[in-house]
UniProtKB/TrEMBL annotation, chain A:
<comment type="similarity">
    <text>Belongs to the binding-protein-dependent transport system permease family.</text>
</comment>
<protein>
    <submittedName>
        <fullName>Carbohydrate ABC transporter membrane protein 2, CUT1 family</fullName>
    </submittedName>
</protein>
<dbReference type="InterPro" id="IPR050901">
    <property type="entry name" value="BP-dep_ABC_trans_perm"/>
</dbReference>
<feature type="domain" description="ABC transmembrane type-1">
    <location>
        <begin position="62"/>
        <end position="252"/>
    </location>
</feature>
<keyword id="KW-0812">Transmembrane</keyword>
<keyword id="KW-1003">Cell membrane</keyword>
<keyword id="KW-1133">Transmembrane helix</keyword>
<feature type="transmembrane region" description="Helical">
    <location>
        <begin position="7"/>
        <end position="27"/>
    </location>
</feature>
<feature type="transmembrane region" description="Helical">
    <location>
        <begin position="130"/>
        <end position="153"/>
    </location>
</feature>
UniProtKB/TrEMBL annotation, chain B:
<comment type="similarity">
    <text>Belongs to the binding-protein-dependent transport system permease family.</text>
</comment>
<dbReference type="InterPro" id="IPR052730">
    <property type="entry name" value="Sugar_ABC_transporter"/>
</dbReference>
<dbReference type="InterPro" id="IPR035906">
    <property type="entry name" value="MetI-like_sf"/>
</dbReference>
<dbReference type="InterPro" id="IPR000515">
    <property type="entry name" value="MetI-like"/>
</dbReference>
<feature type="transmembrane region" description="Helical">
    <location>
        <begin position="149"/>
        <end position="173"/>
    </location>
</feature>
<keyword id="KW-0813">Transport</keyword>
<feature type="transmembrane region" description="Helical">
    <location>
        <begin position="7"/>
        <end position="25"/>
    </location>
</feature>
<keyword id="KW-0472">Membrane</keyword>
<keyword id="KW-1133">Transmembrane helix</keyword>
Length: 265, 288
């Protein structure tokens, strides 16, 4: 039993090492980083973080990323809700094909779509807006949200719908006041995964933006190449990108196992 | 029994519209490029299937595809058994379970380019924790930017670090759904640990493991950002995976025709392999 509990501990240790190193580097001065190896920062410095929080290019990168991720999560979950309801409750012509077609979009390599996406969003005049990235990320997040929500909705007995109609509820009222609260953990899990995949995706968000909606990823690469290789600054920027994910995951910690338990990701 | 209701299409319409906008229009653009030659100025000439032939015959494509299959194969045979083993070793309940799950899920929530940058910092020969440890404590010379073997080991370990947790979480969710009565029955029968795993735990995990294998296949086959940031496809072309090569051709050399043909072949392979995995892994369900 002792030996067994060692396995997850060792695994978590392995996961934490690179993260620790990133955080440790972010508190070191450039001199210390270049002068040699040290396991802990010898002279703690907050300069890297101060630079990020005082330079608009940097902090706007974060704000831009958070704006399009939030926008994408809201759009994906909102349109996925009625669709998932239709898939879980009704059978209609072509439903299975449609469901499968939605899922194939999860398989498309983002690299395949980078250039056509650039042209498409330039053509409709949305290039370099938050909305462009939010809509582009719908490609893989909507199928995901539909898949997750359909699983949760299928777990709700159909009698709930029928009872509500007998009681004289209209469909919108039933959906908002009875059905939605019944699947709220599903909405949470779906929103979590939309947030996650939109937050971590970088190829499309970089391709679709230039200045106004530039995500943090693009700021990181451009700064790294233009101002020499400032490892401390890069590490601080990287550390800050871990925080939103950590906050979101803390809120859904009790649902994660359940969301996965449905066998849907 | 589901109700027949054609008006359900109205519910699906917004999803259909948004996904079609993002999927069909770019796909048609790619198809369009794949059969034409361009000399700039929006001048296009019909080329038929020339680009497809060229890509399928080119050694460069074969090499990238070979590397891609090798990478995905390594990822699947390492991450899936490792993830299942870790899930089996996890406690079923207790105050530490949510803490473990949150810590394990953390790597999946880090932006992909940051994952690459983080591993770069981690493996720098004289500055990084791992690089310093290997070079100066263990005493093997390790430099990812010079040695193709080191580069390969690093991108595989990085992906194991990044995505094994997905398999752990899925397998763990499958395990906790097994009722205790199954284990009690096994104990009465005097079943060995292996028998419990083979006849109780593995069958119960089958659905989630199918999903884990499928997701890991799709995502590792389409991987771009992390290895690109870490190695840039180097040293030489040794870690130039399919997506990296594709972006090089499309955006680097602006050879739109060949890049488009390659995109379609690439997508077709992903689709076909996913379908194959799915069919093979769910074959027994259909018989039963």
């Amino acid at each position: 039993m002792r030996m067994r509990s060692l396995v997850p501990i060792l695994y978590i240790l392995f996961l934490m090492l690179p993260i620790y190193w990133l955080v440790a580097m972010s508190f070191k001065t450039t001199n210390e980083i270049l002068s040699g190896f040290s396991l802990f920062p010898q002279t703690w410095t907050f300069d890297n973080y101060i630079e990020i929080f005082t330079d608009p290019t940097w902090y706007w990168g974060y704000i831009n990323s958070i704006i399009y991720v939030t926008l994408n999560t809201v759009i994906s979950v909102t349109v996925a809700l009625p669709a998932a309801y239709a898939f879980s409750r009704y059978s209609f012509v072509g439903d299975k094909h449609l469901f499968f077609w939605l899922l194939t979009n999860r398989m498309a390599p983002a690299a395949v779509f980078a250039l056509p996406f650039f042209q498409l969003y330039s053509a409709v005049g949305l290039f370099d807006t938050h909305l462009a990235v939010a809509l582009a990320h719908c490609l893989f997040n909507i199928p995901l949200a539909v898949w997750i929500l359909e699983g949760f909705m299928s777990g709700v007995p159909k009698e709930l719908d029928e009872t509500a109609y007998v009681d004289g509820y209209s469909f919108p009222r039933f959906f908002m006041t009875i059905f939605l609260p019944a699947i709220k953990s599903g909405v949470g899990v779906a929103a979590f995964f939309c947030f996650m995949f939109s937050w971590v995706e970088m190829l499309l968000s970089k391709t679709l933006t230039a200045v106004e909606a530039k995500p943090i990823a693009a700021v990181m690469t451009r700064t790294a190449s233009s101002a020499g290789y400032e490892l401390g600054l890069l590490a601080a920027a990287g550390t800050l990108t871990i925080i939103p994910g950590a906050i979101v995951i803390y809120f859904v910690r009790n649902y994660i196992a359940k969301g996965f338990a449905l066998g849907r990701v | 029994m589901k109700t027949q209701n054609q008006r359900a299409w109205l519910f699906v319409l917004p999803v259909l519209f948004l996904v079609a906008f993002n999927a069909l229009i770019p796909m048609m653009t790619v198809v369009n490029y794949s059969v034409q030659e361009t000399f700039g100025d929006n001048l296009f000439f019909w080329e038929g299937l020339r680009w497809f032939e060229e890509v399928l015959r080119s050694e460069r494509f074969h090499n990238a595809l070979g590397r891609q299959f090798f990478f995905t194969f390594m990822i699947l045979i390492i991450e899936v058994p490792l993830g299942v083993a870790i899930a089996l070793a996890m406690p079923r309940k207790g105050p530490w379970v949510p803490v473990c799950l949150v810590l394990m899920a953390l790597p999946m929530l880090i932006p992909w380019n940051v994952v690459g940058a983080m591993w770069n910092i981690f493996t720098l020969p004289d500055i990084g924790l791992l690089g310093y440890f290997l070079n100066h404590v263990v005493g093997i010379s390790y430099d990812m930017t010079q040695d193709p073997v080191a580069a390969w080991v690093t991108i595989i370990v990085m992906d194991v670090w990044h995505w094994t947790s997905l398999v752990v979480l899925l397998a763990y969710a499958g395990l906790v759904s097994i009722p205790n009565a199954y284990y009690q029955a096994a104990e009465i029968d005097g079943a060995s640990n292996w028998a419990v795993f083979r006849f109780i735990q593995l069958p119960k995990m089958k659905t989630v493991l199918t999903i884990a294998v499928l997701l890991r296949f799709m995502d590792s086959f389409n991987i771009y950002t992390e290895p690109f940031v870490l190695t840039g496809g180097g040293p030489g072309n040794s870690t130039t995976l399919l997506s990296i090569d594709l972006v090089k051709i499309a955006l680097g050399q602006f050879d739109l025709g060949p890049a488009a043909a390659m995109s379609l072949i690439y997508f077709a392979i992903t689709l076909f392999a996913s379908w194959l995995f799915y069919t093979v892994m769910t074959k027994d369900d259909n018989k039963a």
